[in-house]
Amino acid sequence: MSKRLILAYHRILPDELALLRQPLAVSTTQFERQILYLINKGWRSLTLSEYFEIYYLEQKKPDRVFVVTFDDGYRDNYYYAFPILKKYNLKATIFLVTGLLNEPKTLQSDNNINNNLTEMDYSITLEQMREMANYGIEFGSHTVTHPRLDTIGLAEAEEEIYQSKRMLEQYYNRQVKTFCYPYGAFNDDVISLVAKSGYQCAVVTPTRPGIKETRFTLIRVGVYNSNSLLKFKFKCSNLFTNIRKARLWFLLKHLSIYLKKKSTIKTSFVW
Questions:
Q1: Which of 23, 80, 133, 199 could cysteine-pair with 224, CB 3.0–4.6 Å?
Q2: What's the pLDDT tens digit per position in 106-129?
Q3: Neighbour count for residue 27 (Cβ, 10 Å)
Q4: 256 vs 266: CA distance, rounded Å
């Protein structure tokens, strides 16, 4: 097992609804089994800022700590993930798109959902956010409108990064220390803007090989609907970490995508 782990989730939905929101929606059954696996192995839950303070500020190396993170702040995080977190007295960090808070809007990518939008496809409300914060859930920034920060102008990127922090601190009434890059997209200029805006750290779920981990590129492990419990256990292992560091993972991923296009065999490889 790896000694430290940052997990990247998006959505938690009942089993039948999760199938309609693949690959980002993990079912409540999957989520609880994954959490129980870590608990039963003696892992301890932290928020991302706690994780950063222990590993980067205090330079300590405690064994078996994990962070649950959620991107985008979907309302299902409140209705379905939050009760499970409370049931096991666990912490989490949720990255909010501040422009969607209390607004009748969804992410642009969700506008293409073939099935009708439901309440769960919208952002959590301010009231729900404050209830979760009072319990101990941490909230971090995921920009104002969720753009690819590496494809827009620096002035616009700075506005997205800084204003989301300012807005969230106003709503949250706490210092916002953590940031998550939309689509995992960043470059050196974007990292500089995140640091300049006052964040302590930022996370990324690698979509390309060769990303060096720093305080502003903390590496996460993505968890998806297609991940069986066996696959989840593997992704929590040192073997997976070492394979990814060696860039072999990305070669396997692209090989699987190629084979899927060339054959009728279903080789889902959303990792």
A1: 23
A2: 886 665 565 578 899 999 999 999
A3: 20
A4: 10
